[in-house]
């Protein structure tokens, strides 16, 4: 079923997104005037893949707002850097090259990693390749907004200092690990595809989460040692929630109402199975 959901989404993408071939051959190295950015672009006419490497050093900002808009392919995001961010972006055509910027206004930094204008004429075929590998700094306070057109995603931000996480996917398969983040606000929207979302670990703050599904299965991993209240509305498919008490459309665990922090989750719509996994 996973491949079917992805095929549905990619069919949608064929109607609206693509790229035009490039034939440039160059090697460019640059840094901005504040020395906060290191850039390397390697492109070769004899190769099918161009590579952009861009690292951004920490500035004076104490909190970051990150916006990532990914076209199609494979994206991996982790928290392995001590810089503000590191990125390696592989693309078969310049239409897939990301536009990357970072600015600061007072204590807030604004990191943007976005794809090209969606209104450009595009054609996609099997030879196209787009892979983004992004590392963020887990110690910096971050609010993330990620838009994902199609493909596969692996987002591992466990133990990060996240204050808000918004994710929107047209079609694909994605793993999102927010274990031990205690993120207060989480929004997930998907039109088609499968999602594995990990919200386990220790919670200091309450979580308010909205999960809106489309065509596809959702696996939700939750902490057994924190109070959980889960409302599941309008889902067409099987719901597996072992260890939770069900009253109407509401599922709770034994500790709900007795822990300092609680997880309040609204799961709406969708055609596919819902799998709830409780872990210590």
Write a concise keyword list for the protein shown above:
single chain, 280 residues, mainly beta, 2 domains, 19-stranded mixed β-sheet, 1 helix, 19 strands, 56% strand, globular
User: What portion of residues is helical?
Assistant: under 10%
Amino- and carboxy-terminal Cα gap: 30 Å
| Share of β-strand residues | over 45%
Number of DSSP E strands:
19
| Rg (CA only) | 20 Å
One letter per element, helices H and strands E, the order comes to HEEEEEEEEEEEEEEEEEEE
Give the helix tally.
1
Q: Which stretches of 5+ consecutive residues score pLDDT under 50? A: 10-36
When the domains are counted, the total is 2
Average residue-wise pLDDT = 85
- Which descriptor suits the 3D outline? globular
Q: Which class best fits the helix and strand makeup?
A: mainly beta
How would a textbook summarize the main sheet? 19 strands, mixed
Provide an overview of this structure.
The longest helix has 15 residues, at 2-16. The chain has 1 helix and 19 strands. It is mainly beta and 280 residues long. The chain folds into 2 domains: 2-196, no CATH class; 199-280, no CATH class. Helices cover 5% and strands 56% of the residues.
